[in-house]
Amino acid sequence: MLSSYKQHVQDKLAERLVFKNQLIDFTKQIEQAKDLNENQIKARHIIADVAKLTQTKFTSYVEQLVTLAIKSIFDRPFKFKVDFDLKRNKSECFLRIQEGEDEEPFVPSQELGGGVLDIISFSLRIVLWSLQNPRSCNTILLDEPFHFLGKLSDRAGTLVNELSRRMNLQFIIVTHDEVLTNIADAAWKVVHNGTHSVVTQIVGETKSRLLRGR
Predict the structure, then answer these.
(1) Inter-residue contact 44 to 110 (CB < 8 Å)
(2) Alpha-carbon distance 141 to 153, whole Å?
(3) Is residue 190 a contact partner of residue 199, using CB atoms and an 8 Å limit?
(4) In angstroms, rounded to a whole number, what is the distance separating the alpha carbons of residues 192 and 209?
(5) For residue 170, pLDDT beyond 70
(6) DSSP characters for 139-194?
(7) Is the pLDDT of residue 62 over 90?
(8) Residue 188 contacts by C-beta under 8 Å, 6 or more apart in sequence?
(9) How does pLDDT run across 102-160, given as a tens digit for each residue?
(10) In this model, does residue 90 exceed pLDDT 90?
């Protein structure tokens, strides 16, 4: 009888030791989970701070360059604005124009004749290209990029030439604007005669050839 009690006590002591070791393991796991959670919280804060700093620098960079481009074309106190709003845990970007320091920024539209949109679209394309790392090829294709500028297209042409020179960019432009054609380094006129496309170089060394097709 006594031996059975001793065995029972030993079994309980063994169980107690197992539970004690399990408790130690669980305690370590809880501490590790707490440390991991704290590190994740710290990491989220760091990522949020870096994102905010990056967003601020990106905003400043884009606003300055696009504003300079707009001011080089228009004789109005336009300023380009980039605003970020957090919605449903996602950051949304809004592009606006401000005319005068005391005026409310507004979304640019065709109400301005479309010319401002032309310059904003062109400028953003150049800015995004400049931010690429590594950058893609330095050739940019543009199809009627300044269609709504009218008499101001000569200023846009000057802007294109300046960017080409400073940034080592090659622009290939499809346009009906003779002003842009005349300031180009080389230009070709394409006319379809009903059977062939006749291509004649009108700026630079003059050459003509036929392109089969429609």
Answers:
(1) no
(2) 17
(3) yes
(4) 12
(5) yes
(6) EEEEESTTTT-GGGHHHHHHHHHHHHHHHT-EEEEE---HHHHHHSSSEEEEEE-S
(7) yes
(8) 199, 200, 201, 202
(9) 888 888 775 566 889 999 999 999 998 988 888 778 899 999 999 888 889 999 999 99
(10) no
Q: What is the Cα–Cα distance from 203 to 183, expressed in whole angstroms?
A: 9
Rounded to an integer, what distance in angstroms lies between the CA atom of residue 79 and that of residue 66? 8
Alpha helix ranges (H) inside the chain: 2-73, 115-131, 153-167, 178-183
- What distances in angstroms separate CA 26 from CA 21, 29, 32, 36, 189, one per listed residue? 9, 5, 10, 15, 80
Q: What single-letter DSSP state applies at residue 113?
A: T
Are 126 and 135 in contact, with CB atoms under 8 Å apart? no
Q: What are the phi and psi torsion angles at 93 (to 5°)?
A: -105, 135
Domain residue spans of the chain: 2-134
| Per-residue tokens: 198 | 């006749």
Q: Write down the pTM of the prediction.
A: 0.71
User: For the chain, how big is the Rg over CA atoms in Å?
Assistant: 33
